[in-house]
Specification:
Two copies of one chain form a homodimer.
Chain A (H helix, E strand, L loop, with lengths): L7 H8 L3 H8 L7 H14 L5 H7 L7 E6 L5 H16 L3 E6 L4 H13 L4 E4 L7 H9 L4 E4 L9 E5 L1 H14 L5 E4 L6 H16 L9 E2 L5 H11 L8 E4 L2 H13 L9 E6 L12 E4 L2 H17 L7 E4 L2 E3 L20
Parallel strand pairs in A: 1-2, 1-3, 3-4, 4-5, 5-11, 6-7, 6-8, 8-9, 9-10
Antiparallel strand pairs in A: 10-12
Helix pairs in contact in A: 1-2, 1-3, 5-12, 8-9, 10-11
Chain A binds a DNA duplex (30 and 30 nucleotides) through helix 2 and helix 4.
DNA sequence: CCTAATATTTGGACCGTTCCAAATTTGGTA
DNA sequence: TACCAAATTTGGAACGGTCCAAATATTAGG
């Protein structure tokens, strides 16, 4: 039950040196004599000294607070939790601690949280922005010279670094895979048309369709909420058109699951009568029935690389905005009809 | 791009008052005249002032740093991510921020992280302890008078508050449910015998068996790693015994999934030929085939209540250790053989 | 044994805010 | 108009470190 906090002067007194010397020991300076150092260290241990980083930061003029802020839009979503873990790994081993907050897609929450982090003097921020985040929301940070890395979703117009996955490439590969299985009528389901991510994935789809000499058919593109419910709705709409698709690329895995539901409700078996590909490779993708073929994005790796980028910018004086696109990998499972055991692909014309 | 940081004296100067007055405004004191307050506030806005909480904490002697630490053993696990989100909710709306770190079950990591948080002057800690955490690990915190709430797993001997789920009750209810479906030979699979959680769940099992006048048979209890692999192994062992069980309570959902694998490998269909109940209600439980009957524990609710408890202790002077047991709910799905549609239960004697 | 170097230690100012006691202003009343 | 109480405002000392220039100790060379 230590009454008062132990401070450097306490241990200076006890060790018979000045507080300056204690401070020197604290920062591992080579200026201090070894015997002094050991004596001081011993006293620190004995008295149960705990370093007060807040006090230190006060004098050391902001920059190196050893705190980095992490703000995610939905920690409940395994994808973002993994991202945070990836960040934590590198941040922690670089001797920083992370301030983590969850915004639940609320812009107000996000604003509050970022403000609070500023007050605590974070030396950098990794942000997976809530939907609708504008460049203006990040303005105060960047004009204060605090490095910011946005992850997953880009913030148009903001002069900050970003780490995003290769949306174009992922969908491109998925389409080509479906084409190689014999499909010619491939739909693109789900996602909100106003987001950058949607545009990128859709461009990947269009480019692949064009690259395979297939006719572009805008009716095959149906946008909807990027959720299970949205997928259900989207597949319904896709099956209404005259020349029905035999396969679909889904905006993300949740949409793909919804599409499964919708297919089954119509007596169509996904993976057998209809091919489906998702995006993200969420945790349930591999255990679902049928196991979902999807584009895997390694959120933890993104977190790690994002954190590395941030740390680099922190140590460099002026942060030079930089964008990393994280590459992506098609994971072939059952829902696209190409079983790994080499079973013959489902006949693509039947629906 | 503001060169130097704006401080209270800057705004005092600009507003033509003293820094004391500015400080008063900052803390919303009623001592300051309204016209002064508005003028000062305006200047703060104009100059882009940001409050320096570190400096404030320095003077305000520790207690109210507005930071609470959250340490979880595995953020990748949806269960703990939900827990953290629950904590964040109440912590955030109480004007605190959370320092979150992940230990990946490493005691060293945990030690480092807790030390680092102390240096940052957290006013309380919520800890989901890594396996093997000893009371001694928390000693420094409690003797410094910092409130600690451990969640999910208890730390034996530590004089701290705890919030744990009602393990006894959950398993008790599960066993009674199986008995009501006609089962008489019910196994208990998985879990490490040396953990408190295991003991509690096993006690629930034993008490329910006894309460239903069924013979206690220790060979029906097989411990194994609390993982999918452990479940696979455990079910294999359980099926070796002469008078085979027709149902099993699994230590957690992962074990239950492993048990499913094991049953299928022997041509036994879980949910039809054999009843299985899990614990935790992880996210895959409801989408698995068959959907898993399990004991649901609402991690987010636990997080919220744990945080409330912590905040209470922070505002109270001396933390009085207190234990909350969070109640638990049996979610009946398909794996126990009792379909919600009222189909007749599987014949319990056949295996 | 003295002196210049080199190695080590030290006093005090300072970081941005809060707190306290004292000073100043304001308002009401005799 | 003088005087007292209430309402506001204010200077300066903390808080617990770091930093710098200057002081002191030690060592080597002559």
């Amino acid at each position: 039950m230590g009454k008062a906090r132990v401070t450097v002067v306490d241990i200076a007194k006890a060790a018979g040196v000045s507080k300056s010397t204690v401070s020197l020991v604290l920062q591992g300076s080579s200026l201090v004599n070894d015997v002094t150092r050991t004596k001081v260290s011993a006293v620190m241990r004995d008295l149960g000294y705990v370093y007060n980083r807040g006090a230190a930061n006060l004098r050391q003029a902001g920059a190196n607070s050893k705190i980095i802020g992490v703000v995610v839009n939905d920690l409940t979503n395994g994808f973002f939790a993994e991202l945070a873990v990836g960040v934590d790994m590198v941040v922690q081993s670089a001797g920083f601690v992370q301030f983590l907050s969850n915004t639940s897609e609320s812009l107000d929450r996000q604003r509050e949280v970022i403000a609070s982090m500023r007050e605590h003097g974070i030396s950098g921020l990794i942000l997976s922005p809530a939907r609708g985040t504008k460049a203006a929301d990040l303005k105060p940070l960047v004009s204060a010279g605090i490095p910011v890395v946005v992850a997953v979703r880009n913030v148009p117009g903001a002069k900050v670094s970003a780490i995003v996955s290769d949306n174009h490439d992922g969908v491109f590969a998925a389409v080509r895979h479906l084409v190689s299985l014999g499909h010619r009528r491939i739909a693109f389901l789900g996602g909100f048309g106003d987001t950058a991510v949607f545009k990128e994935r859709l461009d990947g789809y269009r480019d692949a369709i064009a690259g395979c000499q297939l006719p572009a058919d805008e009716t095959l593109i149906v946008d909807a909420a990027p959720s299970r419910a949205g997928g259900l709705e989207a597949i319904g709409q896709a099956l209404m058109i005259a020349d029905k698709p035999t396969a679909a690329i889904c905006f993300n895995d949740a949409v793909a699951f919804g599409a499964c539901d919708g297919l089954r409700a119509r007596g169509i078996e996904p993976g057998k009568d209809f091919a489906l590909v998702g995006f993200d490779d969420v945790i349930e993708a591999k255990t679902a029935v049928p196991a979902l073929t999807t584009v895997s994005v390694d959120p933890q790796g993104m977190g790690r690389r994002g954190a590395q980028l941030l740390l680099k910018q922190i140590s460099a004086g002026k942060p030079e905005p930089e964008t990393i696109v994280s590459s992506v990998r098609l994971v072939v499972r059952e829902s696209c009809g190409a079983s790994r055991e080499g079973a013959p692909p489902a006949a693509p014309q039947a629906v």
